[in-house]
Amino acid sequence: NVFLSSASIAYLGAFTAPFRRDMSEKWVELCHERNIKISDEFSLVSTLATPMQMREWAIMTLPTDNTSLENAIMVTVSTSNKSRRWPLMIDPQGQALKWIQK
């Protein structure tokens, strides 16, 4: 699952939730075809976020839908001390701004 999580963070951040879901499902199928061991039900959120982190994010006004949680994972992973990447946030509703400011 870490393999798919890495691919999701590297390639899917700029896309919509339906496209992310479709690509993840295709990647799971490809992994099964090539005998790469992964879970049948891949989830970026369940692989890289803990319940405590998700609760913290909700307290900091982040919406609890799956797309917002995936975005939070991508932001926190890409801004860690070990990463040299910076996330681009398109935030028409201002939800990410409120979350980051807290």
Give your account of this protein's structure.
With 102 residues, this protein is mainly alpha-helical. The protein contains six helices and no strands. The radius of gyration is 14 Å and the shape is elongated.
Shape: elongated
Q: What is the terminal-to-terminal distance?
A: 30 Å
- Radius of gyration, in Å, reads 14 Å
> What does the average pLDDT come to?
86
Structural class: mainly alpha
Order of helices and strands: HHHHHH
Instruction: Give the number of helices.
Output: 6
* Beta-strand percent range: under 5%
Largest sheet: none
Helix residue percentage: 55-70%
Low-pLDDT segments, ≥5 res: none
Q: How many extended strands?
A: 0
Features:
0% strand, 6 helices, 102 residues, mainly alpha
List the helices and strands and how they pair.
Layout: H1 2-11, H2 17-33, H3 44-48, H4 51-59, H5 66-78, H6 95-101
Write a brief structural summary.
With 102 residues, the chain is mainly alpha-helical. 60% of the residues lie in helices and 0% in strands.
